[in-house]
Amino acid sequence: MVMKLKSATICLLLVSAFASANNRSVDVKNLKTTYQDLMDKPNTIERQKAYFDAFPGTWEDFISTYRYSDASGYDLSMYNESHNHIQVLSGRVTLLPDSVYCRKLVNIAVGASLSADAPSHFQELLHRVMWKRMDGMLREVAKLRRGYQMQFWQFYWSSPLSSKDVETEYQRLLKLNADAYPQQMETMKIAYNYFYNGINIDGGYQED
User: Fold this and answer.
1) N- or C-end of the chain: fewer Cβ atoms within 10 A?
2) Torsion angles phi and psi, residue 107, rounded to 5
3) In this structure, are residues 159 and 167 in contact, taking their beta carbons and an 8 Å threshold?
4) Do residues 128 and 93 touch, judged by C-beta distance below 8 A?
């Protein structure tokens, strides 16, 4: 009888552990619904706002929603939709003010780390939005404490390889914003020097 109780307890603990691992704090059902509503009728501020509000608002929520897992029974539907969900933030969410739109994107990027799939897609989104809403993005980054500003730029410039396009973008950002955002550009320079062409995408150590 004792052995049976112990076995049952172990099973319950394993089920509970798996449920916690598979749990997402974002309302996935609402996110899927508002995404489909937006795709059906994109040019309404109500639907754009509903989807934008449903989208994860922090890096922790973002990665728990769109992460990959090979655990048995793990629901990969959100992982598989990550590219589409991120793409529409620049392609179809166009009517929200910078104070709302840019603030959320900047907030998600603080503390983010680059890896394949959803994080990479989100980094690409930030680069697109920077050139569509540059003042809005830089104003929101400027509101952060300096450590968080560094975290934003760290993710923005993180790259395992060199790229002429990225290097050109960096020089253009410096040239355009050196007078208006001098402190921002100094912080950006440091992050670029450390994290552009300076990380391993798996987060591991480089072997000799």
Assistant:
1) C
2) -65, -40
3) no
4) no
- CA 142/CA 106 separation, integer angstroms: 10
Among the listed residues 93, 121, 94, 91, the one whose alpha carbon sits nearest the alpha carbon of residue 109 = 121
Other beta carbons within 10 angstroms of residue 18's beta carbon come to 14
**134-168 pLDDT tens trace:** 999 999 999 999 999 999 999 999 999 999 999 99
HSE value, Cβ hemisphere, 13 Å, CA-based, for 77: 8
Residue 140 CA to residue 100 CA, distance in Å, equals 10
Q: Provide CB contacts within 8 A for 45, sequence distance 6+.
A: 95, 96
Closest CA to 17 of 9, 5, 25, 28: 9
Q: Which amino acid is at 35?
A: Y
For residue 189, the model assigns a pLDDT of 98
Confidence of residue 16 (pLDDT cuts 50, 70, 90): very low
CA–CA gap between residue 130 and residue 138 (Å, rounded): 8
